[in-house]
Design a protein that fits this description.
The chain is built from ten helices and 15 strands. The protein is of the alpha/beta class. The structure holds NADP nicotinamide-adenine-dinucleotide phosphate (NAP).
């Protein structure tokens, strides 16, 4: 059976996912698209999926009986509406991060999914599908490092566009670390603190950069993450897990070491898309396979909610200068049997 997918949002990542789902991955086809910019949606459909129907609204796409599953790649503030509508229609939905733009909206989705009694929602936290993170997790899960004690991370971008403002280092960049570190450690966060180092001269007057974010987990692990989005040398993701018996380092992306002009050097990536390009393929292939097998198994609506609550605590911590508790309550038992659960 081929999974017939409808994609809402034909912007940057929407186009990439349409290409993957329609032309690259196994077992799926894109049969419908929608974007608030209908002209753009028609252009993308003509180019990438000539047979696909272009719907005038996301709701019409979800209601289309030919659509078996929905992919939401529209602007963040629209996610809640489209994910809730998909749940109501009983259709599996893959939603790019963020699940929704407020913790309250994420909780609405959690409650609707639990009430539906079916695992329908997966959130696009693709780092869990990255080979290097999976290798690092293996070292933690098989006990090779002993119990994790500390984690040191960095999330560095060479630059960010002008639309990247305010607290987006926390609300837009950092959520990838929020999710992947919970998953790596099989642990949840209990508090957040944000320390602002000296501001780099490479940032704009209206954008704080860098941030140093400190998280504490329920098991007592201390995590520090540098989020530095005007880091002139390139896109660089670092993660070092210090365990009681050993230290695990996230493998570097493969690149050739050269000896030239009296230097020994590696290239450093400049574009975040290249760093995780394979993980998007693995993520969506596993999603297709799991939907066809009858149950979504990837990052859940609860994970999306946890990321949102954690990001809110970090924003509060930044502006108050305090250590902010992360209080989220117990995860509904409904999510216990999902294999990718951080603390299953
Ligand atoms: P984008 O290029 O701005 O695309 C978003 C598209 O959604 C635009 O074409 C926009 O149209 C459309 N849209 C807005 N409101 C809509 C509505 N009510 N109904 C249907 N379409 C609507 O943004 P993007 O970079 O692709 O990002 C999209 C989402 O993916 C964001 O949530 C982002 O955080 C996430 N993302 C995740 C990753 C990852 O690593 N997992 C990477 C990139 C993006 P207009 O332009 O006309 O408003």
């Amino acid at each position: 059976m081929t999974l017939r997918i409808g994609v809402i949002g034909t912007g940057a990542i929407g186009q990439e996912h349409i290409e993957r789902l329609h032309n690259k991955l196994n077992g799926s086809t894109v049969v419908a698209v929608n974007d608030i910019n209908q002209v753009q949606a028609e252009g993308i459909a003509t180019k990438l999926t000539p047979q696909a129907r272009v719907h005038a609204s996301g709701q019409a796409l979800i209601d289309n009986p030919d659509v078996d599953a929905v992919v939401v790649t529209s602007w963040g503030p629209t996610h809640e509406e489209f994910v809730l509508a998909s749940i109501k229609a009983g259709k599996p939905v893959f939603c790019e991060k963020p699940l929704a733009t407020t913790a309250e909206a994420c909780l609405n989705i959690v409650n609707a999914e639990v009430a539906s009694g079916r695992h329908l929602v997966q959130v696009g936290f693709m780092r869990r599908y990255d080979k290097s993170y999976r290798l690092l997790k293996e070292q933690i899960d098989n006990g090779n490092l002993g119990a994790p004690l500390m984690v040191h991370c960095a999330h560095r971008n060479p630059s960010v566009p002008d639309v990247y403002t305010g607290d987006m280092a926390i609300t837009d960049s950092f959520p990838h670390e929020i999710d992947v570190l919970r998953w790596l450690l099989n642990d949840d966060y209990v508090s957040a603190q944000v320390i602002m180092p000296r501001k780099t001269r490479h940032t704009r007057a209206d954008l704080d950069d860098p941030h140093m974010i400190l998280l504490e987990t329920a098991k007592g692990v201390r995590i520090d993450v540098e989020v530095f989005v005007n880091c002139p040398y390139g896109y660089d993701i670092q993660c070092q897990v210090v365990g009681e018996d050993g230290i695990g380092y996230l493998p570097e992306p493969m690149s050739v070491l050269t000896r030239k002009d009296a230097r020994l050097s590696h290239e450093i990536l400049q574009d975040w898309k290249l760093r995780f390009i394979e993980s998007y393929d693995v993520e969506l292939q596993e999603w297709i396979d799991s939907v066809k097998a009858g149950e979504v198994r990837g990052p859940t609506a609860w994970d999306g909610y946890f990321a949102s609550v954690t990001a809110d605590a970090c924003v509060e911590a930044k502006h108050s200068g305090r250590i902010v508790p992360i209080e989220i309550g117990a995860r509904p038992a409904f999510y216990d049997r999902i294999s990718s659960n951080p603390s299953a």
